[in-house]
Amino acid sequence: MSTPLVDVIRLGPATKIRLTTLKRRTGVENWNVLCRWAFCLSLNDGDPVGERHDEVGVSIEMTWKTFAGDSPDLYEALLVCRVAEEAPELHTTTVTTLLRRHITRGVSRLVGTPDLDSIVGLVSPQLGDMCLAKGPHN
User: Fold this and answer.
1) Which runs of E-coded beta strand occur in 8-99?
2) pLDDT tens digits for range 76-88
3) Residues 33-48: pLDDT tens digits?
């Protein structure tokens, strides 16, 4: 395995509070799982993530290995692709900052999804639309 682009992910106090709410609401026990959901949700938004998603202070630290779990290459590829769109200068600080901002934005959006109690709450509308479009015989 190659050296990850990001060693440690540091998230601020407001994100920790939101993640605590999500843990309680979803029953998901680990920050890293919720952070993966949040990261992917944020990436799905075509708009660049801005500075407003920066927080002062650090309340959660996790290693890249913990964040990425069994799929580090997948998450790194997603991150690098998005960095190429938002900040073509590929510097470690840029990559780390964008990752943190995407997680923070995604966590804010997850917390704002009142009926979210599992990942099914994130994918079911899209999955339902796909299934309806195909119909029962396709």
Assistant:
1) 8-11, 60-63
2) 988 888 888 887 6
3) 999 999 988 888 888 8
77 token code pair: 């590829």
With residues binned 3-state (H G I as helix, E B as strand, rest as coil), the percentages for the chain, rounded to 5, are 60, 5, 30
Please indicate, yes or no, if residue 123 is contained in any of the structural domains.
yes
Domain count, the chain: 1
Query: Can you give the residue range of the structural domain that contains 70?
Result: 8-134
pTM value? 0.81
Which class for 32: exposed (0-12), middle (13-18), buried (19 or more C-beta within 10 A)? middle
**CA distances from residue 112 to 20, 45, 67, 80 in whole angstroms, order as listed:** 13, 15, 22, 27
Q: Per-residue confidence at 120, pLDDT binned at 50, 70, 90?
A: low
CATH number where 80 lies = 1.10.1220.160
